Amino acid sequence: MSQPTQAQLNLAALAGSGSPSPRTMRTLRKIQSHQILSSNPSVFSGQTSHLSTARSSANAEELSQQAHLDSPVRLRTHRRARSNSDAGSGERPILQTQKRSGRKTGSGFGIKRSVLETLLRDGPQNGDVEDALKELRYLVLSTRVEADGDGMSTYRVYLWLTLLDIPPLPTDEYLSLIHRGRSPAYTKIRNDTFRTLATDPLFKRRVTEASLIRLLNAIAWKIHDAKAKKRPKSRLSTSRRREMELLINTPPSIAEEEPTDDNANLLTATPSSDAITSESAIYVQGMNVLCAPFLYVARSEVEAFSLFHYFITRECPGYIRGAMDGVHRGLRLVDRCLEIVEPKLSAYLFSKGMQAELYAFPSVLTLCACTPPLPEVLHLWDFLFAYGPHLNILCIVAQLIRMRDTILDSPSPNKILRSFPPLDAKEIIALTVLIVRKIPDALYAELIDHAK
C-alpha cells in the first residue's frame, strides 16, 4: 500500500479538528479537489489514451504535445432573444450568421436533460449532499455544460451558485444599496465600465453599461460598510467622521446625502467576510472585467451581485486589498509553477527579462476573462468554480505551454505575450489537470492561499 501524501495527512488533521471554521472547510474542499485531480487517471471522455501517455512522460514538451486535442474553437454568432437587463429600446443590429446544427438547451417539454442538469435540478437521490457535490464537480470536469453558441445556458448560473454555496439574496436588499446613490468609487467605476469587453459583441448585446455600473456601485457600498465596521473607533463624533470621509473619498461633484441608519446594516443574507479589512479597496481597476461574466451568465442583477460579492470577499479578497498583494503573489506563483513544469520555456523568458508581472497581470486578476472568446471563458470558469479558482494560476501556465514553440522561436517574446491567443477551454483544462500532478504539495498549498 502506498504511503499517504502530505495533503492526505492534512485532510485527516482538518477532518479531526472538531468544528472547523467555514474558511477551513473551503480549504479542505480545495485540497480534496487537488487529490481528485491528481488521482483520477481519465477524466475526459475519449481522451484516456492521451492523458495516460502524457502522465507517464516527465518531459514538459511531450506534456504540451499530448494536451493538444482535435477540437479547434470556432467563433459563432447568431440571433438570440433580448437580454433581461435594461437593453435599449432600439432594434439590435443583426449580425451575419452562419448555419450550423442547432442545439437546444434547457429542460422544456420533449427536451432531454443532461446528467449534469438532472443532478443539479433534482438533487441527490439518497440525500447525501457531499457525494452529490463530488459527482457534480466530476460531471463538470468530464462533460461540458450545455450551452448555445453564445455560451448561454439555462442552468449555468445555478451551477455556479451551488458550487460556491451562495444562499438566495432578497431583491429588496440589492435595491437598498442601489438607492443609496453614488458611492465614493463612482467616478472610478464610470471611467472603467465603458471599456469592459468593448470588442466583444456577445457581451455588448446582453449586458448594458448601466447594469454594470449599478452592480459595481452596489459592491462598492457593501465593501465600504464592511471596512467601516473594521475601522477603529475615533474620538470624533459619528456625524463629524462621516463628514470627513465624504470630503476625503468623494469628489464634490458627486457628493451625495449621507446614508441613513437604515442603510448601515444591509445584506444580512450574505454575511460580511472577515477577509475585508480597512486596507481593502472598495474598487480597483479590473473589477469591471472580473464582474462581466457574472452579469452575462446571471438571469438577474441580484444573482450576479451575490456571485461577485462572494467571489471577491471570500475567494480572492487579496486581489482588492492593499496594493493588490494577492494578484502579485499569484504572478510570482505563475513564474514558479512554469519553472517546474516547463523549465526551458521559463529560463528563456527569464533571460529576456519577461517575468509574469509584465504579461500575466490581467489574466490573474480577471481569471482569464480578459482573453476572448467569452463562451470559452464561461467553460473555463465552470472548471475553476468546481475545483477552486486558485487553479487559474495553472490555467495561465497551460496557456504559456501551448504557446511554447512560438515563444521560443521569437527573439522578442514580449510582442507575443502582449495578448494571449483565443481561449480553448477544453485544451487548457486538460493540460491543467496534467500540470496539477507535477506541482509539489507545499507549492499547491500556496496556490490555494495566495488570494486570501
Characterization of the model:
With 452 residues, this protein is mostly helical. Among the domains are: 114-143; 149-228 and 281-315, Orthogonal Bundle (Helicase, Ruva Protein, domain 3), CATH 1.10.8.270; 317-451, Ypt/Rab-GAP domain of gyp1p, domain 3 (Cyclin A, domain 1, Orthogonal Bundle), CATH 1.10.472.80. It has helices at residues 6-15, 22-39, 48-55, 60-66, 115-122, 129-142, 156-163, 171-178, 186-193, 201-206, 209-230, 238-249, 287-297, 301-315, 325-341, 343-351, 356-359, 361-365, 374-387, 392-402, 404-408, 413-416, 425-436, 441-449. The radius of gyration is 23 Å and the shape is globular. InterPro entries: Rab-GAP-TBC_dom (IPR000195), Rab-GAP_TBC_sf (IPR035969). One of its GO terms (molecular function) is GTPase activator activity. It comes from Aspergillus thermomutatus. Residues 38-109 are annotated as: Disordered.
